[in-house]
Design goal:
270 residues; alpha+beta; Fructose-1,6-Bisphosphatase, Chain A, domain 1; D-Maltodextrin-Binding Protein, domain 2; 8-stranded mixed sheet
């Protein structure tokens, strides 16, 4: 990252450490099942768990503890196991449904938070050969090259991913998808919220919206989105709705995604 020297040393040091996500991702690759029927158990409806989830989370927890013993740690599988002023928030495999079938669209997600603020993030998608990284004030990169959200300014020229969650009624997801598609949008759903959000940051798609996403799914991506100049809705760190877009379509997609029980107010891009 070209401007990493301009950020606080504690953040740049931790961003470099977070890139050990490549080692964790290599571990996951070695454990990835071959293509075919899912080789995993179900925690709940379409919420998959593989042996690799636990192994990768333990690997990251142990390595980060050794490097930064005063930092907190929160993983998807074991929850918050340590507290600290700075806290690592990890999804060992985001896109487990894809991973469990031997597919490629999944990633290891490592976010660094201070209180409710996301300071840095790394996403490693080894089957795709991609690493996204960002640190507050230092920009966002994909495989070391700077990235920026798209300049798209018309909703009917947009590509939008509508994330699905087992916590939300299918009828609600179908209604949201129909409204978005009805506005002339090309609709997508790829089975990994973290990857969908990262692709907004990279300008590959113009928006991602989901009615319920968890903090570990999006912590790293929130840092990448902010540094890439995307617009992002307010997000409840306990989990809830999230919308991230190219700046030029934020208003239009917010209107399409709004419902009486969902607030999607947002902040301007950096």
């Amino acid at each position: 990252m070209g401007s990493i020297q301009s950020v606080p040393a504690e953040l740049s040091t931790r961003l470099e450490a977070a890139l050990l996500g490549a080692e964790a991702a290599a571990l996951a690759m070695r454990m990835r099942p071959p293509p075919g029927a899912a080789q995993a158990s179900l925690k709940s409806r379409q919420d998959w768990l593989t042996e690799a989830d636990g192994a990768v989370e333990r690997f990251l927890s142990e390595r980060l503890l050794a490097a930064f013993p005063d930092d907190g740690f929160q993983g998807e599988e074991d929850g918050a196991t340590r507290t600290g002023r700075l806290r690592w928030v990890v999804d060992p495999i985001d896109g487990t449904s894809n991973f469990a079938r031997g597919a490629s669209r999944w990633c290891v997600s490592i976010g660094l938070m201070e209180g409710d603020a996301v300071r840095a993030g790394v996403l490693v998608a080894p089957a795709l050969g991609e690493t996204y990284a960002a640190v507050e004030g230092g920009g966002a990169t994909l495989n070391g090259a700077p990235i920026r959200a798209a300049a798209t300014d018309a909703i009917d020229r947009s590509i939008i991913e509508v994330g699905w969650s087992p916590r939300v009624d299918n009828a609600d997801w179908q209604a949201l998808s129909a409204r978005v598609q009805g506005a002339g949008v090309m609709l997508r759903n790829g089975g990994s919220g973290a990857m969908g959000l990262a692709e907004v940051a990279a300008g590959r798609i113009d928006g991602y919206v989901e009615r319920h996403i968890n903090l570990w799914d999006c912590a790293a991506a929130l840092a990448i989105l902010a540094e890439a100049g995307a617009r992002v809705s307010d997000f409840d760190r306990a989990g809830g709705p999230l919308l991230a877009t190219a700046p030029g379509v934020f208003g239009a997609l917010t209107t399409l995604a709004a419902s009486p029980d969902v607030s999607l107010a947002g902040r301007p891009p950096r």
